[in-house]
Design a protein that fits this description.
Blueprint: H1 2-11, H2 26-41, H3 48-78, H4 91-123, E1 127-128, H5 137-151, E2 158-160, E3 174-182, E4 190-195, E5 203-205, E6 213-216, H6 217-223, H7 225-228, E7 232-244, H8 258-268, E8 274-280, H9 285-295, E9 302-305, H10 314-318, H11 345-351, H12 364-375, H13 394-397
Parallel strand pairs: 1-6, 8-9
Antiparallel strand pairs: 2-4, 3-4, 3-7, 5-6, 7-8
Length: 398
Amino acid sequence: MAAKKSEKIKSRPEGRLDLPAYYQNRELSWLAFNKRVLGEARDRSLPLFERIKFLAITSSNLDEFFMIRVASLKDQILAGYKKKDMAGMTPAMQLEALGAAIGELVDLQYSSWNRSLLPALREAGFSLLRRQEDLTEAEAAFVDAYFQEQVYPVLTPMAVDSSRPFPLVRNKSLNLGALVSKKDGDGELEFAMVQVPGILPRVLRLQGGGQGRYILLEEIIRRNMRKLFLNYQIICCHAFRIMRNGDLSIREEEASDLLLEIEKQLKSRQWGQVIRLEVEKGMDKRLLAILQQEWDMEVEYIYAIDGPLDLGFLMKAYGLEGFEDYKNPPFVPFPHPDLPPGTDIFAAIRAKDILLSHPFQSFEPVVDFVRQAARDEKVLAIKQTLYRVSGDSPIIKA
């Protein structure tokens, strides 16, 4: 039997593992992954607010994908790099394939939002106004007061003319662009813009109207644009957003101070090449032409969006109170039986090894471990790798 089996193996043709047909391009594979995340947002069996959270995740994922992966491919093309990947695709071929796949993904994102999630949210008591013209008289008064007291002080309106250059538009910032003309002028059109401030909530609950009515911050600003440009007539006003090349190229061997080099590279992200332009669907063609010319944008990297730009705001909407019935019950990790509150962590791990299983068991013992080490006079230094630290990290505080 063994001899026959050996002969059978020898008679097989030698297999080849370098055939492109055996592989899938990494970038297209990533898009397929993000589409599966979007599938969670489209799954009607999930609680409604869990679905909008998944839609927000697909949006932030796609931002990062453009800043790093698409930017890297464009850099390779500029450098004349033509080597094929394992799937047999050059950087140019990958970009071409990605263009079609990303377009389909974005269309699916917003069809899910407009046709499924938005109506469902309305039935759940979360009615998001698409236009400021839909405000009732009482709601309009509330919005205008909010603008005057909270929004106006933090805005920096900018106009472009012969004496003022095109302003720096920050990466991933949401902006309102407008065509304006001087009231006492000859009718010549000028470009003006204002950045939607990130320090204010993107979603505002309205007062003075029906229950559960909300409006986006950009609509509040759009409604009051004339107050920002008093000597101008507002011809049109539309939201836009850009994505810049965020692919860091750090030469560690040549850097005298790695931390300073990383800080320098992070700051340079704000001035990186614009690789994606999102605009409101129906934007005035004259306004679009100005943006396209300023950043030398290719048509295939301009996305006309039928809905709010940057769906990442839905993550904030998920945190709104009063919709607990439309969310999964909060999961509370259980404490480890060997590490109750107040335990001397070092004494416990001297006695025996302890395995923590996250997220099912509490992360608090890890925080306590660092806290106790930080207070221990015998500890000279704490060295650990931290990945994506939260803004209010107890470990950093310790």
